[in-house]
User: Fold Peptidoglycan DD-metalloendopeptidase family protein from Candidatus Eisenbergiella merdavium.
Amino acid sequence: MKKYGKSGAGPLCLLLAACLLLSGIEGSAATKDELEQSIKEKENAISQAQEQKDQIQANISNIQAMVDDLENTKDDLQAYVEQLDGNLAQVQSRIDELKALIEEKEAEIEETKLELEEAVAQEEAQYEAMKVRIRYSYEQGAQNYLELLLTADSFGELLNRMGYIEQMNTYDQEQLAIYVKNKELVEACKAALEEEQSVLEQAKAEVEEEEAGLETLIAEKEAQITSYQSDINNKEAAIAEYEADIAEQNATIAALEAAAEAERKQLEELNKPQATYDGGMFQMPLASYKRISDEYGYRIHPTLGVKKFHNGVDFAANSGTPIMAAYGGTVTGAGYNSSMGNYVMINHGDGLYTIYMHASALYVSSGQTVSKGETIAAVGSTGRSTGPHLHFSVRLNGDYVNPWNYLR
Assistant:
């Protein structure tokens, strides 16, 4: 039997070398407790994803019930429009929630993919390290450990060597436990990724269904307004109602302008700075649009069949298309009107205003300062509208003017 003295503890050196090798490979590895925490977080993520799928299913808008309920108000066009706009707002809000969920899930999926890649890489590194350790143990065998103990020169050295062997055994058990937990984390990441992907796909499918429902309601509205206004028996009443709507619009806008003017005078009296228009050109209020569906000026009304003044430019666009401030200014009004639908009115100074009508959603409020190009609303078909579009108007000193004078 080969003797090992103080100057040549061969097996001990090999044990320590193996430990150092494993420590180098495992140095960046998570602890067992950290892995258990990560597994628990993934299990919670899976549970949350399952709840989200159930919630998506439970919150599907009942479009047919909305359409059926509208039958009760068809004889009163204003009440019908207001009720249907409430339905449109409900469905649009649902679409916005789903789109926010889609963004959230896409971010979570990317994060889970990275965690899965890290867990797989760590699992492979641990596996290779354990193979090195097992190979060493197989090559040295139990006899080598016994020889290590029997060749100790003193009782103290014997105890030290017994301690090293115990540490190695403990280390092996810890690394095995970590390896097992890491495999569990890999599986948990895969399961979480699958559930998150499932939520994403369900949310995307639901957005399509809700958008189809939105189009159904808009088509119902278009059909009803067109039918009402084109019915020869309703012609005089429809024309009178249209004129009353325009008068209501003008009254609302005039009141907002009067309030803005009163504020301007107050600032003037206090020698405080006031908004002024610097003469710059406006930008288009929509980044993209299908076509101009109605121009500014006098034209034959499409359903009433009589000559009427159209006080703005209509840009046909898909529901939800961002509406941007054509120029910087202060929001004078942001609200709902049965004729204008959801609208925004911006004061640019010196009596110049822009108005944006029929929005599906508003993103600004009265008193807010906005910059040129800032998103202020989304295209819709609220109010007296027969399809998704933006009605864009410009007013100067209390009168409507041609928007193209500022857009070109």
In short: The chain has seven helices and 13 strands.
